[in-house]
């Protein structure tokens, strides 16, 4: 049986992401899916991006990712700081992320199938 690793809501924390990826490697899991909200966070968005890109991970977009691409400056000072610090490569990567991914009969999304802000609590 294929085993999967699901990660989500990293929020720019490369330190926690590194520990999680080490654990995933120890468990010999190769199907890794990131369910979004990757770079928005004050700790280390650039280091988080580098870690995500160095590993074979399938990604989708979360609401925090989408909001980083928004021109709205009224969200929060942290959001504005991270948004303004995004490199061209980071921005292009965020823009390329799909809202959902389906593989092996599993549909993956951030929050719920119809909205990245409405939680799926079933």
Number of helices: 5
Distance between the termini: 25 Å
Biggest sheet, strands in spatial order? 1-2-3
Radius of gyration of CA atoms, rounded to a whole number: 14 Å
Largest sheet: 3 strands, parallel
Write down the secondary-structure element order.
EHEHEHHHEE
Strand content: 15-25%
User: How many strands?
Assistant: 5
The stretches of 5 or more residues where confidence is low (pLDDT under 50) are none
SS-based class: alpha/beta
**DSSP helix fraction:** 25-40%
Rough outline: globular
Q: What is the residue-averaged pLDDT?
A: 93
How would you characterize the overall build of this protein?
The protein has 122 residues and is α/β, with parallel strands linked by helices. The longest helix has 13 residues, at 14-26. Helix 2 (45-54) links the parallel strand 2 (31-34) and strand 3 (57-59). The strands form 2 sheets. Strands 1-2-3 form a 3-stranded parallel sheet, with no helix packed on it. Strands 4-5 form a two-stranded antiparallel sheet. The chain is built from 5 helices and 5 strands. It has helices at residues 14-26, 45-54, 63-69, 77-85, 88-96; strands at 4-7, 31-34, 57-59, 100-103, 106-109. The model has no long low-confidence stretch (mean pLDDT 93). The two termini are 25 Å apart.
């Amino acid at each position: 049986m294929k085993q999967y690793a699901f990660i989500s809501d990293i929020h720019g924390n490369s330190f926690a992401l590194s520990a999680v990826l080490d654990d995933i490697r120890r468990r010999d899991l190769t199907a890794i899916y990131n369910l979004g909200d990757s770079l928005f966070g004050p700790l280390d968005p650039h280091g988080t991006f580098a870690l995500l890109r160095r590993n074979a991970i399938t990604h989708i977009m979360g609401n925090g990712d989408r909001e980083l691409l928004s021109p709205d400056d009224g969200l929060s000072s942290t959001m504005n700081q991270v948004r303004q610090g995004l490199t061209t490569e980071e921005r292009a990567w965020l823009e390329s992320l799909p809202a959902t991914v389906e593989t092996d009969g599993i549909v993956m999304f951030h929050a719920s199938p119809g909205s990245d802000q409405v939680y799926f609590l079933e």
